[in-house]
Amino acid sequence: MSLQKNTSAEALISRDETGEAAAQPTETDVLVVNRDPEVRILLNKALFAGNYGSTFVSSAEETLASLRRRAASAVIACVENPESLMTIQALRSEFPQIPVIAFSRFATPDLVRDVMRCRVDDFIFGTFNGRRLLTCLNELLRPAEESVGGGPRLDMPAATRQRDAVEEGRSASPSRRRASVEIICENQKMQRVLEIAGKIAPTDSTVLIQGESGTGKEIVARWIHEHSHRAGKAFVEVNCGALPENLLESQLFGHEKGSFTGAVQRQLGLFEVSDGGTIFLDEIGEMSLDMQVKLLRVLQSQEFRRIGGSHVVRVNVRVLAASNRDLKEEVQEGRFRTDLFYRINVITLELPPLRERREEIPSLIGNFCERFTREKGLPRRSFSPAAIETLQKCAWEGNVRELENTVERLILLSSGETIEPEDIEEHIPSGTRLALDSSFSPQLSLDEVKRIHIARVLRENGGNKMRSARILKINVKTLYNLIRSLDITY
Ligand SMILES: Nc1ncnc2c1ncn2[C@@H]1O[C@H](COP(=O)(O)OP(=O)(O)OP(=O)(O)O)[C@@H](O)[C@H]1O
Ligand SMILES: [Mg+2]
Predict the structure, then answer these.
(1) How far apart are CA 79 and CA 31, in angstroms?
(2) Which of 87, 93, 326, 469 is the most buried (most CB within 10 A)?
């Protein structure tokens, strides 16, 4: 049996010397069914950060054997092959009371339907996002103040997202899934952005949201959806930069059985899945020129054909798009089609970088601090005025996302009830602490310089690892290793 422990979480849970878990389960023990070593590392790290103990198994037999021996608070089942679905079905029938979260890095509408048929409590798919996973776990295991309804739910991080059961076409109120999108907005430019967003939300206008990485493009898109008449319907997010062209086409428009090698059955595209709702095309500037032509056709006619299909599919979908590149510049450079630019640029919302709205930093810190302690079931924590002032002076090249990660890190690593400037000095890499104009610091170690530079390149390229690796002149595997070993956030 290849039962493996989450070694970094050992301090949190009691286990016997043979590596088997001790008889008394902790309240927060999670069983993970997984075979992919890369995902295993990511899951291990995320669960540890969330104060969850974890045990890893890799097959249906091991899953059932482990649960018969020792209860778990929840199971995370990585959907990697058809056997994974059978594992979920088996554990559902023998242990119906244990919450199950399914996870897959790649998903098609058919897979979503198959997984939801297994009656999982949550399905997360797309690029791995530890925070989203922890939010799902916390909602299931530590429901606390937020009221969470029963029934299956979906959470689709980077590649795609769509709300509630696809197959039954059910729609749930967004607030049932989680508290409505809450946007801190105290800066005049941001207030203007939200004012315009409020005006155009009820319409069906296409909206282009521009801003540096981490400025809040996705949260604003969700806000628009939730304030539109489509709020009860699907919000589907597609990260156009995360998928190769042919996969993106098949994800967006679907395909017919036999239309290409590997197309073993008909698959619906995300335009069909989001019918009646909103599709959010993130990183639209990454789309190839060929795909841009195909997208333009759909935007103009609201109809398309699945790959290999002759039947015209009509949909009613609102399109929101985002880019961290200046699309006008991309048009001038010939990398983005003029006609598509004018088609999506009906309304443009420009999100200012965090360094231009530092007055929001205290409220953002307060908001993140309150949320993390609640989600992780930690005692109340606060930031001293001096600590807030220190954070207000940081560069924040990664914008609100970097601030959010920093607050989380400080809460996890500092021991006192109040976080002070010394905690920031001790726990936050000097690269983050660098004020915007101090581009050279003689105290930086080589690793810190690497961390800063790699994070900058990743941010500049919207997190696209292939492109970043090319610029850094290293291979992608080395880049992944550096991200992990230097603990790079971007
Ligand atoms: N004004 C805000 N109030 C509260 N939280 C915010 C705000 N802006 C951003 N956030 C939070 O910061 C994080 C980053 O925001 P988001 O994902 O929307 O940024 P983005 O611009 O889409 O980033 P990227 O370009 O990297 O995709 C999210 O967790 C989001 O909830
Ligand atoms: Mg985004």
Answers:
(1) 14
(2) 87
In whole angstroms, what separates CA 488 from the centre of its chain?
16
Spatial neighbors of 68 by CB under 8 A, at least 6 apart, are none
Question: What's the pLDDT tens digit per position in 94-111?
Answer: 888 888 998 887 766 677
Residue 298 token pair: 């759909």
Tell me which fold the domain 359-485 belongs to: Helicase, Ruva Protein; domain 3 (1.10.8)
**Ligand 2 centre and the CA of 212: distance in Å?**
10
H or E, element range at 227: none
Same CATH fold assignment for domains 188-352 and 359-485: no
Query: CATH fold of 4-153, please?
Result: Rossmann fold (3.40.50)
Burial environment of residue 435 by CB neighbours within 10 A (0 to 12, 13 to 18, 19 or more): exposed
In tens, the pLDDT along 160-178 reads: 333 332 322 222 222 223 3
Q: How far apart, in Å, are the Cα atoms of 436 and each of 355, 440, 463?
A: 8, 10, 21
Q: Is the CB of 285 under 6 A from ligand 1?
A: no
Instruction: Taking the CA atoms of 125, 128, 131 and 134 in sequence, report the sign of the dihedral they define.
Output: positive
Q: Check if 407 has its Cβ closer than 6 Å to any atom of ligand 1.
A: no
Residue with tokens 């899951």: 43
The residues spanned by each domain of the chain are 4-153, 188-352, 359-485
Task: From 221, 230, 315, 227, select the one nearest 273 (Cα to Cα).
Answer: 315
pTM recorded for the entire structure:
0.63
Residue nearest to atom 8 of ligand 1 (CA): 216
CATH homologous superfamily of 188-352: P-loop containing nucleotide triphosphate hydrolases (3.40.50.300)
Q: Which tops the pLDDT comparison, 295 or 143?
A: 295
Q: Which residue type, as a one-letter code, is found at position 20?
A: E
